[in-house]
Write a structure and sequence with these properties.
Length: about 350
Amino acid sequence: MPFSVLDRSRTRQGHPEAEALRDTVGLARHAEALGYHRFWVSEHHSVPGVAGSAPTVLAAAVASATSRIRVGTGGVMLPNHRPLVVAEQFGVLEALFPGRIDMGLGRSVGFTDGIRRALGTDKAAADSFASQLAELTAYFTGGPRSHPQVHARPAEGLRVPAFVLATGAGADIAARAGLALVIADLRGRDAMRDAIERYRATFEPSPLWPHPYVIVSGTVAVAETSEAARRLLLPEAWSLAHSRTHGVFPPLEPAESITARAPALPPKQRASYEAALTGHIHGTESEVAAQLDTLLTQTTPDEFLVTTSTYDREALLESYERLAGVVGVRGRGERVPGR
């Protein structure tokens, strides 16, 4: 089974945002050398802890710095953009890096009302995701679109695989559109499994995907000891808990700082912090292998997308190295498996 990487370009306390972007490119090189299948970047606007605001630009930098690994977005938030412009951007990427570009698409809108206004959108824009998706893919496949006289150059005729990030009704939209599905354990494993089964049962083949294709995503942290692996989870959990109680997503902090401050958290934030630490795969190589085996048996995906973020970049690189050994991607960097 292919294993892939999504990096959100998380910023770290005391480090400039530009460093987070350079770290993303460096991680992509590392993932390619280890034999991972894809490397994706994300889209966030005006979020203090995330530097990745322009995913197609960052994807171009990643593709330029690598030579074999597939590169894409996880994802471009389509309600924030015009389908024509997105088609043109991915057409340019595919023309420059043929056979290596993925088009991951999501339906989320801006983090706050102010961001949504600055983007020229609103919460209701997410309801138009399915129609935007159809318009976008039609520029590649030659299908019907609202302005048939308009052409997305150089996208027409190029094959850029499209993936739908399953938030809300995303699994059903992906099935109707005939596109690949990317899904995470956000509402419980049973709910995720049900969504995958429904997607496969109702999938309608398309020119981009003749068969259903499921990518399960999640956090995986591997270290020499169980406790060291758990420490890798602390910075992201702390930042997420802070965002839920203060409305601000801060840069990642060192695990040692979090460990010292966690006992004094107010009850509400403490509950959010503890909740953010659950549901992830972490531990030693043998522990992670057993946890992955359970998850993959329950969900039967075609691929797994790792989305780990932490403060300690060296420990993160080591985690990906250890995981490569667990799942057997190490040593496959000389080629890219087919879709």
